[in-house]
Every structure is written in structure tokens, then in C-alpha cells.
Amino acid sequence: MFDTNIRTLVVVGAQWGDEGKGKLVDVLAEKADWVVRYQGGANAGHTVHIGDRSTVLHQIPSGILHAGVRCAIGNGVVLDPETVFVEVDALVRDGVDVEGRLYLSDRAHLVMPYHKLVDKESAASKAIGTTGRGIGPAYEDKVARRGIRVLDLRHPERLRALVEKGTAHANQLLAGFGSAKRADAEFTLAELAKLAPRLLAIAEDVGLTVHHAQKSGAAVLLEGAQGSLLDVDHGTYPFVTSSSTTAGGASIGVGIGPRSIDAALGVVKAYTTRVGSGPLPTEFDDAMGERVRALGNEFGATTGRPRRCGWFDAVVVRYAVRVNGLTSLAVTKLDVLDTIERIGLCTGYEIGGEFVEEFPGDIAELDGVVPRYEWFDGWMCSTAGARTLADLPAAARAYLDRIEALVDCPIKYVSVGTRRDQILETGIVGG
Questions:
Q1: What are the CA-CA distances from residue 237 to residues 213, 243, 248, 305 (Å)?
Q2: What is the C-alpha separation between 234 and 229, in angstroms, rounded?
Q3: Which positions of the chain have pLDDT values less than 70?
Q4: 3-state secondary structure of 163
Q5: Residues 243, 144 contacting (CB under 8 angstroms)
Q6: Could you tell me which of 341, 281, 340, 355 has the C-alpha nearest to residue 313?
Q7: Which of 44, 67, 115, 229 would be 137's cystine partner, CB 3.0–4.6 Å?
Q8: Active site residue 18
Q9: Strand (E) positions, 69-144?
Q10: Angle at CA 426, nearest 5°, toward 37 and 27?
């Protein structure tokens, strides 16, 4: 993927998240010098398979599993300071050398204990289907200019004032929810005091560091969380996350100029999934949903929640291609469809008796859409042993060809299993 023309690449989810970005980042990281996470928080979950070992990463970039690759958490991430070191310590116990390879933006905002408490007690958060990890409240405080950044840990008096202000606001919210629970500023300060030395030891201006790396010709991989349809501006609002999940968010979330990003790879499943509430136009009925969920092990890596499943939606992915400026696609989990007799592919929607091919921004329209499908005969044989596109059944290749044509973006990778050798590269040139 990296060549003389592509030195900085962003990888984004082009559906509603859980597309398999971590696996692709893991493969691409072998040839990267830097892997940088640019948004989201501990609500993300990347399951990476190396040999017989599976590792779930929540906040640390997937590249940490490759010796010599440097990893950074950008300013666009809201960091859970407690759980990030639980993750680090687990990696060390597994024999992963983290020393001198993990960097943290000193501009990144921190998830406080009171953010988690507010998230868990909020009826609005429960309705949207958040993970309850404080991500939304932390972003809300960031935008409201009462957030706490890593660099604030260097200034104890300022930190105390900020924690007291944040705690007071959280308690006002909790009272408004009718909750009897309250946040405690002294508890929060005590926890931060324990963690501050480890956080500050890896804190720096990540944007400047990555800028210097780019100037030196380093291969830089930018890794996001969630999916394009969960973007706070471009997703199915209000059923979205609290950050910019699209490629545009990478520049802001790392602190580098948009012109320094050379290519954008969008990751999609061979079908569609989402977690929680919100529109899913191609959602299966119960029987097919259960079948595909079992075949694809569609349960959240972070929460274990079952994912809703549906046919591949070309309207959604075509929209993601546009808003991200995608230069190529990776299609994951093609093998999940190996035993499906008849496969649907959504080409457009009927809304109010009119056929549309562009994704609407109004969820009232999305609630009433009737998907239009093209139907494909299933290939009814295992694709797990395929190592090139030529090894795939003709019916599977026809399905992929049609996806490529409908979304107007070339497919660079196809995965047919969880192992690294089950990711097929198509041979297309460029990003």
C-alpha cells in the first residue's frame, strides 16, 4: 500500500463501524513507521489475530504489535487514563515491547470518572446505545471548554479547579436525571495523581512529531474508530458518535495538514452491521439476522452486544466514498456469505414512491425507505482457502465486481477469514 507516492494513509470505516479496520491496520502496519489513532475512545474495539493469538485493542493503535513501529494517540481521542494502562500492562505481560514506542498527545482530552457516571445514568445515552464509557460526556465537556487535557496534569492548581468545575457540572446533570449518585472531586484528583506520572512520561506534541516523521519520508498510517455513518456531522444523526469519524477528522485529530494525507482506504464488510439504535435500511428479518450473526460472530469486541445485520448497502458505501474521498476499499468477511443461497445487494432506495441513489440526511426519510435489491446466486463453497482473487468462485467475483461498480471505488483488499494470510490483495495500483 505504501509506495513512493503514498507515504501517509488514513484507514476509515465506510459503514457503521466494526468493519474490520483493526485487521487491515495490523496488516498495513508491517510496512509503516508510524500508526496514529486520531479519534474516538475506549468504546472502540479492534480484534487482531496474529498466529493463534487474538488481541483486543481499545485505545492503543494496532501497530503496537509490530516491533519497531511507533504508535501515537492523537489529540482527537478522548483518553480513558485508567484503562489505557490496563491495556499497556496486558500487552507487556504478553511479551509486547511497548517501551519507547507509545506516544500520547498532550492536547488529548481525558475521560473522567464523572463522565462515565453521567453516561451510565443518562437516559439519552441509553436510548442511543452508547457503551457507557464516558466518551460522549467527555466530548461534550471538550466542546463546552471545560474539558481536561493531558497537559493540565502538569499544573496541579489548574487541574484542581478544572476537576471541581467538571464535577459540579456532572452532579447538576445527575440531579436532573433523578439519579441519587454523585461524583466526587477528591476521588477524581486522587486517581489522576496516581496516573499522572505514567501519562506525562509519554505525552508530547504528537502533531509536531508526526509532521517531522512525514518530512523525513516515514510511512504514516492514520487509524480511526467507529464508521463513517456514525460521524457526528455526516452520520445518521442523532444516532451517531461524538466525534468526526471520517477521513477529514484525521487531519484535525492528529494535528497535520489535510494535504499531507496521500490516500484513504475505506473498510466495509461484505454485508452490513450496526450496534444500537438508528436506521439500518437493509436490516434482515429475525431468521436471516440470527444466521448471519452466528456465521460472522457479530458481537461487539468491547461490549459483547449483538450487532444488527443486513445486506450490503451500496447507497451507504457510495456516500462514504464521497464524504471521505476514498481512493480504495477493503471488503472483509466475504467468507461469512459462503453458505448463503441467495445474496441481496441494495442499489438504491424508494422514498415516497421515488427511486433515489443518494443517501438522505433526514432519518425520517430513512425510517420509511424501501431498499431496492439486485439478487445474486450464492457460491455455496468455502472461500477460506483462497489466496488470490483468481481462487475465488466466479459468483463471488461477480458479487465483488458489482459492489465496485455501484460504489465507484476500486477494491484493493478482500478478506476470507481471520488470519493474515486470508487477506487477498487485488493488485490495483495506488491507494
A1: 36, 12, 18, 21
A2: 7
A3: 44-54, 123-131, 301-302, 428-431
A4: helix
A5: no
A6: 281
A7: 115
A8: yes
A9: 70-73, 78-79, 102-105, 109-110
A10: 30
Active-site choice (18, 106, 119, 313): 18
| Assigned fold of 8-106+203-265 | Adenylosuccinate Synthetase; Chain A, domain 1 (3.40.440)
Distance between terminal CA atoms of the chain? 6
Q: How far is CA 15 from CA 82, 227, 245, 270, 386, in A?
A: 30, 5, 11, 11, 25
This prediction has a pTM of: 0.92
CATH number of 109-199: 1.10.300.10
Residues 378 and 340: beta-carbon distance below 8 Å: yes
Return the pLDDT at 22.
85
Is residue 286 part of the annotated active site? The answer reads no
- The candidate with the shortest Cα–Cα distance to 338, out of 274, 409, 415, is 415
Q: Which residues contact 2 (CB under 8 A, 6 or more apart)?
A: 9, 28, 31, 32, 219
CA neighbor of 115 nearest in space, from 49, 173, 66: 173
> Does residue 82 contact residue 50 with C-beta atoms inside 8 Å?
no
Q: What are phi and psi of 421, to 5 degrees?
A: -75, 0
Q: Which of 20, 31, 87, 82 is nearest to 59 (CA)?
A: 87
Nearest alpha-carbon partner for 289 in 313, 307, 304, 302: 307
Q: Would you state the pLDDT for residue 336?
A: 98
Helix (H) or strand (E) holding 371: strand 370-377
Instruction: Please report, for the chain, how many H helices and E strands are present, in that order.
Output: 13, 20
Instruction: Tell me the domain boundaries of the chain.
Output: 8-106+203-265, 109-199, 268-425
Predicted local distance difference test score (pLDDT) of residue 69: 96
Active-site residue among 26, 46, 66, 106? 46
Q: In this structure, which CATH number among 3.40.50.720, 3.40.50.2000, 3.90.170.10, 3.40.50.280 belongs to the domain 268-425?
A: 3.90.170.10
Q: Which is it for strands 78-79 and 109-110: parallel, antiparallel or unpaired?
A: parallel
What span, in angstroms and rounded, lies between the C-alpha atoms of 132 and 21?
Answer: 22
Q: Are 221 and 34 in contact (CB under 8 A)?
A: yes
What is the Cα–Cα distance from 169 to 183, expressed in whole angstroms? Answer: 10
Q: Give helix 135-143 / helix 113-121 axis angle, nearest 10°.
A: 110
